[in-house]
Design brief:
single chain; alpha+beta; PH-domain like; elongated
């Protein structure tokens, strides 16, 4: 396989995976402590068990959501072929597209959890599917990336 003209990686989701692994590990440790030593006498046992159960429920739900967001690697190869590699915590997938399967490359404006502007460079396929190839707070960086990808893909 020849070297890519453009290669873009989005590793942002990996932070969420790591955070949730740490969070669930801590909840597991506190569960083990409560299981071996019993609840602390300063608070009602039912309250402590309920809080721990709530942490497990919320943690598993958030971990499932964050685990469904892939890290991606997009490569534009000479000749216009596009390879999209997606990686989740428990699986990976690689797809190949011809240049004419790409409908558009665009930057979408959004807001982060603090309300600050957040930008996503999105690849839109002709079948209507969209793939985020990079994201971040710097609009100029995202616009430059979209322009680089559009130029690498050539007329289509």
């Amino acid at each position: 396989m020849s070297a890519p003209i453009v290669e873009v990686r989005n590793r942002t989701p990996a932070f969420g995976w790591g955070f949730m692994a740490f969070f669930l590990g801590m909840v597991g440790a506190f569960t083990w402590i409560m299981g071996t030593d019993g609840p602390h006498p300063s608070q009602p046992a039912l309250l402590q068990h309920g809080a721990l159960g709530l942490f497990w429920i919320v943690g598993v739900i958030v971990a499932a959501h964050l685990g469904s967001i892939p890290c991606t690697r997009l490569r534009v190869l000479p000749g216009g072929a596009v390879v999209l590699s997606s990686r989740w915590p428990m699986r990976r997938q690689e797809e190949r597209f011809a240049r004419d399967a790409i409908a558009a490359v665009e930057v979408r404006r959004d807001r982060d959890s603090d309300g600050d502007p957040y930008f996503r460079t999105v690849l839109t396929l002709r079948d209507g599917r969209t793939e985020t190839v990079r994201e971040g707070h710097d609009e100029a960086e995202q616009q430059a990336l979209a322009a680089r990808l559009t130029a690498a893909l050539g007329p289509g």
